Here is the input.
Amino acid sequence: MKEQLKRLKQEFQTALEQAGDSKTLEELKVAYLGKKGRLSGLMAELKSIPPQDKAAAGKGINDLKQSLQAGLEAKTKAFAQAEQARALDAEWIDVTLNPADRGLGAFHPVSLIQRRLEGLFTAMGFQILDGPHIETEHYNFEALNIPAHHPARDMQDTFYFTDGHLLRTQTSTIQIRGMEYLKPPLRIIASGKVFRCERADASHDSCFHQIEGMMVDEDISVAHLIYFMKTMLTEIFEKEVKVRLRPGYFPFVEPGFELEISCLICDGKGCSVCKRVGWLELLGCGMVHPSVLRSGGIDPQRYSGFAFGVGLDRLAMMKYAISDIRELHNGGLGFMRDFTLPADLAFRR
Ligand code: DAH
Here is the structure.
């Protein structure tokens, strides 16, 4: 028995030394100290030992049991400590680190303008609506009084899907969706990305942003339109800007206007952004065409309305004196940092 105990101890020692993780330790525990383990086997053999040797053998087994337990415990503890040290090392946080060095998030100039206008218009009772980028010809053209063979489609060439859908060229789609969704009196704005098959230059890109607005009620006139446009531009530029309203043709309004502002990049002298004319077409607007009202299920005999559409990128370029629209879309962080406000400031109006 003595020999057996000695061998078992040695075996265990070797196994313990080789154990590399706590799972192996658990297996060792079961194999040696478990109910059907090696020590229980020895206990069972006690029966067949001569009475005079029993006490010594029993003590031997117990001593061995204690020594195995102590060995296991020590190693388990060592593993736990090593595990904790590893976790502390990996999940280490320097609470003294200056948070300013981590780069505070900021809004893109286009988002700043969008939020500002959404804030202004909701304060004036307008509702914010949204619409899909992938549109049908109906919402993008037909319902807006631009039938299939209308030359206005040429100016808004876009990307078509094989099933007839297209990437919307204008947020004016929301005029129709809005009229279908709400009954007059209605005041809505909608902003988002629009797409055109366009060659990129300082003032054009194949994807840009617009905000659309529409107000429909009884007795809405051009006076309402002018009031809201003036309020909008004062809000954006925070100062008096020179504007001019010229007749403009958009199939979905009658009369239609082009609102132009004196170029803020060159102060009206002429530059690449304003194509050397000193004026920059900022937005299209007008009185909603009767057939557009009808497309939206609204009786043009009873109701009238105005609508406008503005390029948000263009507003951002004017506001922050950015001379190339591509700067707004290429994701350059260095550039953005010069124009964006920290998120908390952007929310304050
Ligand atoms: N959708 C026009 C464009 O993308 C802009 C526009 C013009 C919108 C006149 C309007 C409007 O709502 O009345 O060029």
In short: Residues 342-349 have pLDDT under 50 and may be disordered. Residues 170, 172, 212, 250, 253, 256, 284-286, 307-309 surround 3,4-dihydroxyphenylalanine (CB under 6 Å). The beta strands are 127-129, 134-135, 166-167, 186-195, 207-217, 243-247, 253-262, 279-288, 304-311. The chain has two domains: 2-90, 109-347.
